[in-house]
Amino acid sequence: MHENFFHKLKIYYEDTDTGGVVYYANYLKFLERARTEALYSIGYSNSKIKENFDSLIIVKSCKIDYKKPAHLEEELTIRSFVKSVSKTSFFMNQIITRGDDLIVDAQVHLVFVNQKGKPVKIPVEIYSKFKPYFCDTIKT
Q: What pLDDT, in 10s, does the model give residues 73-111?
C-alpha cells in the first residue's frame, strides 16, 4: 500500500469572499503549499531541485472538482499521493477534506523541466524518495 502526504491548514479571512466562503482560486494555492510540504518531507525543496539538478517542477495541468464549500476558520486536511509516474512527469492526486467531508478532489500533472522549459528525466534520487508515495499505476 502506498503512503500519503498530509498537510493541515486553517482558513483565514484573506482566503474567503465576503460571505466567508473560500474563494475557488485559493484552493490551488492550498494544493501548491501541500505539494511544497511534501517535497520538504522527503528532504527537498524547489530551490534545492533547481540548484542540485538544474530542474524545476511545473504544473502542466490540473483537474479540480469542487465538492463542498469551506468556510472561515475551518480546519482542512490535504492528502496527496502520486497516482502515476513516467520518465519526466507524475500525476499527483490531492484531496482536501474537512473531517469526513470531501471539499476538493484534484489531479495535478507535474513535469520536471530544465531552465529552458524542456522536459527532463526525474532525478533518480527524487524518484526513489517519492516511490513509497506511488499508487499502483506506474508508467514507464
A: 999 999 999 998 999 999 999 999 999 999 999 999 999
Handedness of CA 33, 7, 52, 134 (dihedral sign): negative
Which of 17, 65, 101, 136 is catalytic? The answer is 17
* Matching residue, cell 464549500: 69
| pLDDT higher than 80, residue 43 | yes
Q: What is the DSSP string of 77-115?
A: EEEEEEEEE-SSEEEEEEEEEETTEEEEEEEEEEEEE-T
Q: Is the pTM above the cut of 0.85?
A: yes
- Rounded Cα distance between 44 and 137, Å, is 24
Domain ranges of the chain: 5-133
Amino acid 1: pLDDT: 42
Is 17 catalytic? The answer is yes
CATH superfamily of 5-133: Hotdog Thioesterase (3.10.129.10)
